[in-house]
Amino acid sequence: MVRLAQRGGDLRVVDDQFGAPTPAVTLADLTAHMIDRHQASERYRPLRGVYHASCVGRTSWHGFAVTLLEKLFTRPAQRESLRLGSLPKIEPIPTSAYPLPARRPANSQLSVDKLEADWGLTMPDWQSALETVLRDA
């Protein structure tokens, strides 16, 4: 999105595919936390199986693009360092208007209920995680 915004002009972004954007740093922190707990406590050693890990909440690609760019454009230092001009118009479009070789799911949300219950964790919402990434950039 940033690269497209740097080029200038309006953007067209899919608005009917939903998920919870999750930065790699969130997954890395979660993994380190789980390893530490597993090694430090007998309570967590028997826990096994598949756990879904993602931020919570829901947005479309369009919603994510709007949120990301609006946040960047309100931060003068980041806006300048990224060489962003003016905030582009971000037009919502259906998946059918943006054909790709592989079909994409309309809903790629993951349930983190088991992860949170078994490990006593609370996953951040995608907006908070995005804010952290932008703050630390």
Element layout with pairings:
Layout: H1 2-7, E1 11-14, E2 18-19, H2 24-40, E3 59-60, H3 61-73, H4 76-81, E4 90-93, H5 113-119, H6 126-136
Parallel strand pairs: 1-4
Antiparallel strand pairs: 2-3
Helix pairs in contact: 3-6
Spatial sequence of strands, sheet with the most strands: 1-4
Task: Point out poorly predicted stretches.
Answer: none
Which CATH architecture is right?
3-Layer(aba) Sandwich
**Percent range for β-strand residues:** 5-15%
Q: In the CATH hierarchy, what is the class?
A: Alpha Beta
Total strand count, please?
4
For the biggest sheet, the summary is: 2 strands, parallel
End-to-end gap: 16 Å
- Kindly report the average pLDDT value: 93
CATH overall fold name = Rossmann fold
Number of helical segments with 4 or more residues = 6
Number of domains: 1
Percentage of residues in helical conformation? 40-55%
Q: Write out the CATH superfamily name.
A: NAD(P)-binding Rossmann-like Domain
One letter per element, helices H and strands E, the order comes to HEEHEHHEHH
Shape: flat
Structural class: mainly alpha
User: Whole-number radius of gyration?
Assistant: 18 Å
